[in-house]
Specification:
By secondary structure, the protein is α/β, with parallel strands linked by helices. The chain is built from 12 helices and 12 strands. GO terms for molecular function: porphobilinogen synthase activity; zinc ion binding.
Length: about 325
Amino acid sequence: MELKHRPRRLRANAAIRNMVRENHVRVDDLIYPMFVIYGENTKNEIPSMPGVYQYSLDLFVDALKEVVDLGVPAILLFGIPESKDAVGTGAYHEHGIVQEAVRVAKKYYPDLYVITDVCLCEYTDHGHCGLIMDGQILNDPTLDLLTQTAISHAQAGADMVAPSDMMDGRVGALRQGLDQAGFTNIPVMAYSAKFASGFYGPFREAAGSTPQFGDRRTYQMDPPNGNEAMLETALDIEEGADLIIVKPALAYGDITYRTKQRFGVPVVAYNVSGEYSMVKAASAQGWIDEERIVMESLVSMKRAGADLIITYHALDVARWLQK
């Protein structure tokens, strides 16, 4: 039988496979999440996230050097305060841990792009992302505190803010507040399609943000809902979002695809803590080839339409790409 089409011709060797490859993961695509804490000479490994640490500011500088040396262009900062209260004061304090970490990063590595997570959950004694009254999460009163947080990050030198709280109207509130404070050029990267997922467990250990009662299902999206993600995204873009995050990434590739196809804005896939930990656990048992699995996962996010990827694998990926 004569075959006119032989797709295997373009798979014959590494050279031709590389030449016709449709999607690539580049180091410029990566954003590395980092956790900072008060104290000195402290580097706490997260038990459920091997290779991920909480850094005191003195050792944070050393960790940043590795990020910069590997060519990773951006970090996403999360802070763990010394104390917590009902209104999350540490989130928007002038000398809060994230604010101080931004100043350190910009002092030593001014060209490193610093993104800050804007939320209250790490700073409240109840672990929720908003103010509480009679067991209910208050939406509108929370917006003012989130806006104060974003402005304080910008004043410290942050290049971009990323609200992750999922309160209604928070992108518009942040955009208005930043503009009025003179920070019209600070982009907002919105966690627009953020689902109430089981993949966040290890992060809550890393950030100390486990809710003390209930859960976050009244403000994070229900996992079965795709159309709701489109509504959330449309609202955030209308309010001024510059980039859109889909979180988690692996189980929500369809949402990444739909977001990119429908809106055409820069889309960021968040390869979250549970996805990272599963790979690390299976690799430690010798069940999988970690590098192949990670790269296959990340390229699936690019194939779905992601422009950027937030991932705890970023440093390892940067090393692999150098080979």
